[in-house]
Amino acid sequence: MELTITNLSKTYANGVQALKDVSLNIPGGMYGLLGPNGAGKSTLMRILATLQEPDSGSVQLGHLDVLRQKDEVRKTLGYLPQEFGLYPKSSAADMLNHFAILKGITNSTARKEIVGSLLRQTNLWDVRKLQLGSFSGGMRQRFGVAVALLGNPRLLVVDEPTAGLDPAERVRFLNLLSELGEYSVVILSTHIVEDVSELCTRMAVINRGQILLETEPQQAISAMHGSVWRNIVRKERLPALEQRYQVISTKLLGGRTVVHVYSETDPGGGFEPVQPDLKDVYFSVMAGHYQPVTSGLKKEVLP
Ligand SMILES: Nc1ncnc2c1ncn2[C@@H]1O[C@H](COP(=O)(O)OP(=O)(O)OP(=O)(O)O)[C@@H](O)[C@H]1O
């Protein structure tokens, strides 16, 4: 199973171009779509989930044309939107049973089995009789996954699921997702770099509706070896450093500022080489130190 997105564009009525000629090949497994707020992630996710029309382009899931065969796609689609409403007075088990009926699982014995197994898989079995209104953020998200998994989707679209989860809930949630990636296409949109580095075998960086990078996280990190340098400075020095160097990121650490810069040769000035991580990759791409490439990270500095 593979998802092929070709030349997708979308401009809203207010003139905002949310997607500009987006093309991606998404194989089975866990795929990360990483970008800041407003990058166009939700627009792309809603189009993949057959809830929105692009202006142009095509999307193919295996042999299905996602934009034309919507009913067929919906049978094999799971979608966890950024926000969803639940009946607060319903129990988790009742609500999931209700969604299973909507999904067309009419045989009651089969449905009971499926609902039970999903509640166990999402670690909600013990709280299945509690009202959804009493659920924590993490429990809600896991319930959302249980709903999205009804009917064994071949395509699972998950939009910013970890925003608002505490660290323990986030880890539990990511572990749950990582178990799903093997047999279907799972697309995870997020603005959190760690979500991608911990989970995804492939990823794309999107900003202002454009794909800036499409790669394997490990490959992108390797390609930056030797090009990331670190210094710890006083805040007042930052403007001067930004003039002189290609600054990737700055981070406060105990009142001082840790600066990462991009340079293919020793930049001097007290900078030391560091092992790059996916944050260095992401912020370098966002800062425009790299040219967009379709696969892998080419070491090309923009003029
Ligand atoms: N219905 C709409 N009408 C007009 N503009 C919209 C609409 N939906 C989104 N936009 C704009 O399109 C751009 C992309 O939005 P989108 O929600 O796809 O981004 P995102 O990456 O998901 O961001 P976020 O994480 O904030 O949801 C933004 O500039 C947004 O303001």
Automatic annotation (TrEMBL):
SUPFAM superfamilies: P-loop containing nucleoside triphosphate hydrolases (SSF52540). Residues 3-233 form the ABC transporter domain. It holds the Pfam family ABC_tran. Keywords: ATP-binding, Nucleotide-binding, Transport. The keyword Membrane does not apply. It comes from the Bacteria. GO terms for molecular function: ATP binding; ATP hydrolysis activity. InterPro entries: AAA+_ATPase, ABC_transporter-like_ATP-bd, ABC_transporter-like_CS, P-loop_NTPase. Coiled coil: none annotated. The keyword Nucleotidyltransferase does not apply. Belongs to the ABC transporter superfamily. PANTHER family: ABC TRANSPORTER, ATP-BINDING PROTEIN. This is Putative ABC transporter ATP-binding protein.
